[in-house]
Amino acid sequence: MFKESFVRFILLLLVQVLILNNIHLYHFVTPLIYIYFIIKLPFDIPGWLLLLLAFLIGFLMDIFAATPGLHASATVFAAFIRPLIIRLMRSGRDYEPGLVPGIRDMGPRWFIGYSIIIVAVQVAAITFLENLGSSDYTQIFYRWFYSTLVSFTMILILDYLFLTKKKKGYI
């Protein structure tokens, strides 16, 4: 499990930094798929490790995108609320140790609800922090909405493409 998560971490970071950060649809929508790493961590990962990994991937994004603290803070915030979202979406059964959120194990309906909330929160944090001094709320809303939509669609496609088997372990 550790090897699979490490590979996912590196690949998502590289795709985000080398390709997606250079795509600006309609000059204001940038797909953000690196949050998929946090989405796919096992349910039973310790909170401290979840936050540490979120900070690490966000910090590396900040280094490559020259946005000090922007991605790190947004990703840590998304990771911080992840356990609450999982508890709220509990399907009435306990999660097995090592179970990873995904379409295969949790079903498309559960995964869509869970991942769109995480993506929307993370993109909202980034959009809000990027536009702190702006008063153009319509543009901020459109930026958040379309960035969430594009990012979520790409994450959903990724999960369908890389359906993984159940495995045990933390990372």
Protein model, in words:
This protein has 171 residues and is mostly helical. The chain is 65% helix and 0% strand. The protein contains seven helices and no strands. The radius of gyration is 15 Å and the shape is globular. The N and C termini lie close together (6 Å).
The major beta sheet can be summarized as: none
From the N-terminal CA to the C-terminal CA, the straight-line distance is 6 Å
Strand content: under 5%
Gyration radius from CA atoms, angstroms: 15 Å
Order of helices and strands: HHHHHHH
Helicity, as a percent range? 55-70%
**Average predicted confidence as pLDDT:** 87
Task: Quickly list its features.
single chain; 7 helices; 171 residues; mainly alpha; 0% strand
Please specify the SSE layout and strand pairing:
Elements: H1 2-18, H2 36-39, H3 47-65, H4 70-88, H5 103-106, H6 108-130, H7 137-161
Helix pairs in contact: 1-3, 3-4, 4-6, 6-7
